[in-house]
Amino acid sequence: MTLVRKILFAIVILTSFLLAADPLAEMIWMRGMGSDFLYFYAGTSVGVEYIKALEIPIFPSDIPLHFSGCDVNLLKAIIRDESNFRVHATSLTGALGVGQIVRSTAKWLGIRNPYNPVSSTFAICKYVKYLSGKFKTMEELLWAYHDGEGAVRKRGPSSEARNYAKTVLNFYENYKKSREWTWFKDRILLKASALYLPPLSYQLKLGMSFSIFGSLDVDGGCSFSNLGSSVFLKSYFRLFHDLALIVDVEPDGTYFGTSFWNIDRGIEVLIRPGYGKARLQVENFGMNLSGGRISIFYRMGF
Question: What is the pTM of this model?
Answer without folding.
Answer: 0.82
